[in-house]
Amino acid sequence: MMLSWLQRTGNKPIPLMGGGTTRVGDPSGKDETRKILTIEQIDANKEEIKKTFSSFLAFGAGKSDAVMVDNAEWLAPLNYIAFLRDVGRHFSVNRMLSMDSVKLRLERESELSFIEFNYMLLQAYDFVELAKRYGCNLQMGGSDQWGNIVSGMDLGRRMGTHQLYALTCPLLTTASGTKMGKTASGAVWLNEDQFPAFDYWQYWRNTEDADVSRFLKLFTFLPMGEINRLSALGGAEINEAKKVLATEATALVRGRAAAEAAAETARRAFELGETATSLPTVEIASGEVDAGLGVLTAFVKAGLVSGTGEARRQIEGGGLKVNDVAVGDPRAALSRADFNADGVAKLSLGKKKHILLKLV
Predict the structure, then answer these.
(1) Which own/partner contact pairs does 167-174 have at CB distance under 8 Å and 24+ positions apart?
(2) Dihedral angle computed from the Cα positions of residues 22, 28, 29 and 31, in that order, rounded to the nearest 10 degrees
(3) Are 334 and 298 in contact, with CB atoms under 8 Å apart?
(4) Among 253, 269, 266, 268, CA closest to 206
(5) Tally of CB atoms within 10 A around 174
(6) What is the pTM (predicted TM-score) of this model?
(7) Contact 315, 281 (CB under 8 A)
(8) How distant, in Å, are the alpha carbons of 306, 347, 348 from that of 322?
(9) What is the rounded distance in angstroms from the CA atom of residue 94 to the CA atom of residue 74?
(10) Which of 70, 114, 160, 178 is least surrounded, with the fewest CB atoms within 10 Å of its CB?
(11) What is the pLDDT, as a whole number, of residue 31?
(12) What pLDDT, on the 0 to 100 scale, is given for residue 72?
């Protein structure tokens, strides 16, 4: 979104792919070393990320058209001895140890490999190369990248680039303090294969009341007048603002048609009580049902719960439903009678998570 706004104000975004640094890993305050991927995995991931960026940015050869570059372009052919001589000499180990991304790992006594310790030098060198090759003036990122970006500014000054600048934004959290994009069932993905458009729409629809105004400003391009109008809604009316947020945020990443289809699916399922066929669907073999598919196992297979233990706890609280009827007995099993003429049964976790089981 920061890059998109940068482009909308007439500037040229340069999204940087980490095809080189991904081969190394990034400490970034994490306790575990990042998994090292193969070159083939990295290339496949880059292609998917490019598709996502294309939803936010216009690429081309124009003055403000975005250009996507990969730091493998200059990192892969680096001569280590020359790099130490030309770049490494500008870094103080004392200062590197004081950076949060390194200091936190050491304080927690979590292992920090030498290859990760080098990451700060590589990201700083990226800034210098971007400045020299593409005339880049400003590096933007999350606040956890501040130390690495400032190191790049300093390295640029020492290696003779023009004046470089840094801009970071706070890491995104909800009003309740939880990190954005993290849920009990896993991360919120931007691509359809890992997170269907309906689930993505529902994620935004379920925004906490206190976050609606802020998220409309951060994750949509609606005019401020419209955002202020929606932000002023109170009581039950705030749900209308949440629907607008969900549709606009989904349209940005998945397209307007997918966003409106998700909104209509939600309307039919939640407001009209229909079993909308466009709800997320999980196929299940007819033989499993005929053999007596336990309701606990069914909810695990549907991905609504992580295991049968969680399913039992949800039943105790009245949280699991089959065809909108609460499950009262954890020993119950699904039968053919639970599936309609099209071979579909609706499983629900709470009021907002629904999956269709379809017999095959």
Answers:
(1) 167/2, 167/138, 167/139, 167/140, 168/140, 168/141, 168/142, 168/143, 169/2, 169/140, 169/141, 169/142, 169/143, 170/142, 170/143, 171/142, 171/143, 171/144, 172/218, 174/207, 174/208, 174/211
(2) 0
(3) yes
(4) 266
(5) 16
(6) 0.71
(7) no
(8) 17, 5, 6
(9) 27
(10) 114
(11) 46
(12) 92
How does pLDDT run across 270-325, given as a tens digit for each residue? 665 555 555 777 888 888 888 888 888 888 888 888 888 888 888 888 888 888 78
Listed residue (353, 346, 352) closest to 305, CA to CA: 353
* One-letter identity of residue 155: L
Whether the pLDDT of residue 182 is over 70: the answer is no
> What is the spatial distance between Cα 312 and Cα 187, in angstroms, rounded to a whole number?
24
pLDDT at 29 (0 to 100)? 45
- Annotate 9-77 with DSSP letters as a single string: TT-----EE-TTGGGT---TT-SSPPPPPPHHHHHHHHHHHHHHHTTT--BSSSTT-B--EETHHHHTT
Q: How far apart are CA 207 and CA 242, in angstroms?
A: 7
